Amino acid sequence: MSENPRAALIDAFTELNRDFATEYRGLWSRGGAEEQALMLADWVRELERAEVSAAGLRAAHERVKADPAYRNYPPKRRAFIDLALEMQRAPQGDTDILEAVAALHRGFGFRYGALWPRREQSEEQARAQYWAAALSEAGLGASDVRAGEAALSSAEPFAQHPPTMDQFTEHCLAAIDTCDAPGVSAAFLAAASAPGTCAIHPLVAEARRRVGAHELRTRASDALRAEFSRVYRELRAAYRRGSLDLEVSAPVQGAEPAPAVADRESLVRTLDTLIERYRG
Q1: Are 224 and 188 in contact (CB under 8 A)?
Q2: Looking at the record's lineage, which domain of life comes first (predicted)?
């Protein structure tokens, strides 16, 4: 292949054009020799204007061929150029999690279309930063994000609809957890259950202890659920890093012991006093 950048770009686009014409047939213009030449010139001019390299074009081409989202329809030109730029900016090694999330969101746009609408650049960056921070707090890295994205096509709940940030976090955690810990929702329900009603995973039991078993059983609120989710995810991340001194080989049967009788009697007396005051 020629080392001339334009010649390399022409070669890369010619390969793409041939593959797309075969794969998408009438959805990708064939035309005669003159129409093909005009399309080539138009594409190359726009690719050069966007500073897309032949390597970036080929990487995007491979990504499209492997992505089920493009099984029936080719990508739009602007979306494909954006993808090529994203691919050529990514280093060969592990990327920063923010870059991995930006690529993930770009992929969501290709995969889910209008269900993942494009935003202004500043809004896209803010959303990516929010996701990256949350995924990092859960102990996930850039490689975990990419692996989670690759596994989305086989994840039934996300075949048609994009995951929320929490759902994608759980999706990634489920793929790398080695301690059979339940998801956040199941963990919260177990932690808030009455003593002795179910077996509690040790990480759930520890999260419940830190948040407060009595609070979880008696005070249901979005803030409390969010606090439990944060603590539980931190514990799972600490366990994976090997920095948590906790045995997680088997579930803990039941929950903490019930309140002492004296405590119950005290609560009853307090309740009676309040009722009397109310009646008075």
Answers
A1: no
A2: Bacteria
Q: Is the pLDDT of residue 262 over 50?
A: no
pTM exceeding the 0.85 threshold for the entire prediction: no
Determine the residue type at 275. Answer: I
Beta bridge partners of 253: 199
The dihedral sign for the CA sequence 260, 265, 266, 270? positive
* 20: amino acid identity, one letter: F
Tell me if 130 sits within 8 A of 164, measured CB to CB: no
**C-beta separation of 204 from 190 below 8 A:** yes
Spatial separation of the C-alpha atoms in residues 234 and 243, rounded to whole Å: 11
Domain residue extents for the chain: 1-89, 100-176, 178-280
Whether 67 and 35 have beta carbons less than 8 Å apart is answered as: no
Half-sphere exposure of 104 (CA within 13 A, CB side): 33
Q: At what angle do helices 142-150 and 97-112 cross, to 10 degrees?
A: 20
| SS3 at position 252 | strand
Q: Running DSSP on this structure, what letter comes out for residue 199?
A: E
Q: What is the pLDDT of residue 149?
A: 86
Structure tokens belonging to residue 71: 């099984």
Lowest-pLDDT range of 13-17, 231-235, 261-265: 261-265
Q: Under a CB-based contact definition with an 8 Å cutoff, are residues 224 and 240 in contact?
A: no
DSSP 95: P
The encoded tokens of residue 54 equal: 């032949």
